[in-house]
Amino acid sequence: MAERPEDAPNPPKLARRAPVTEKVAIETEQPEVVDKVAALLGKWAEEDR
User: Fold this and answer.
1) Cβ within 8 Å of residue 28, ≥6 positions away
2) What is the distance between the alpha carbons of residues 46 and 4, in angstroms, rounded to a whole number?
3) Exposure string over 12-43, b if 16+ CB within 10 A, otherwise e
4) Does residue 34 contact residue 28 with C-beta atoms inside 8 Å?
5) Staple 7 to which of 2, 11, 24, 39, CB 3.0 to 4.6 Å?
6) Distance between alpha carbon 45 and the CA centroid of its chain, in Å?
């Protein structure tokens, strides 16, 4: 284990998501699904900043 943070190996970068080429609407009447998807999209948007 590295003693100092600067000695620690960099974690591998995740592959960048491909640009959106097609938009697909997903229909659901389950609000918990909508909430989870919205949370993931918000998380990804924050990570991309």
Assistant:
1) 34
2) 27
3) eeeeeeeeeeeeeeeeeeeeeeeeeeeeeeee
4) yes
5) 2
6) 7
pTM exceeds 0.70, yes or no: no
Residue 13 is encoded by which pair of tokens?
């970068």
State how far the Cα of 37 lies from the Cα of 25, in Å rounded to an integer. 12
Sign of the CA dihedral running 31, 33, 36, 44 = negative
pLDDT digits (tens, 9 = 90+) for 1-49: 546 666 667 666 666 667 778 888 778 788 888 889 889 989 988 887 7
C-alpha distances out from residue 39 to 7, 25, 45, Å: 34, 17, 10
User: CA–CA separation, 49 vs 22, rounded Å?
Assistant: 23
